[in-house]
Amino acid sequence: MSLSEVEPKAPRATYQLIIVLSAMIFLALPFVSSFNEFLTSLVMSFRLYTFIHDVVVPIEVRMIGAILQYLFGIQTSVSTTSLYLQGAGRSLSVVIAWNCVGWQSLVLFGFTLLTGLQGPYTRRSKALCVALGVEGIFLLNLLRIVLVILLAFYFGYLPAVVFHDYAGTILTLIYLVLFWLFSFKYVLERVGFKEEQQISQGEVEQGSGTNGGSSGLCGPAS
To answer: Nearest Cα to 169, choosing from 113, 95, 110, 109?
Structure first.
């Protein structure tokens, strides 16, 4: 069996997994609060939340404050875990809890890695794929939090809560599909792919040389 026959299995399995996860998540949307509470209790039992609260949250708060102030022109003050917005006769105080930074989307991404990286890919391309995916998840969560804050600031609490509870999950699923489309096409590199290209190129050049010689022999006699 050639590598070209093995490779398509990983993309198919990954997309199938995303479809299954999407179906499960959409079925669970009415119970999303209970599910988040379950995940939260699980993370708290291993005390993983301390790293998120002490390291991740302050970094994200500062980055979100900079985005709101310099990109959207909203006067923003930040502390370790909170932001205070003022502008256009409005004011808003926002607390970023450790459970709201989007680590759940990182869990979903981890599930897709189990199938996405099963193909015969080089270690370097796999590492690059993981790094790009984690970075993309981080930026996606920054975008999600910024949108939630903007909705709360301009339109009120209810639209922000609806977006926070439901649209964030949909954004994550869309991101996963686009990410794996990009990774399978441009990032992941099959083992021996360069050697195959060199062999194919050599065969083409050899075939061109043979055809050139034959055409010379078949020319009109002088």
So the answer is: 109
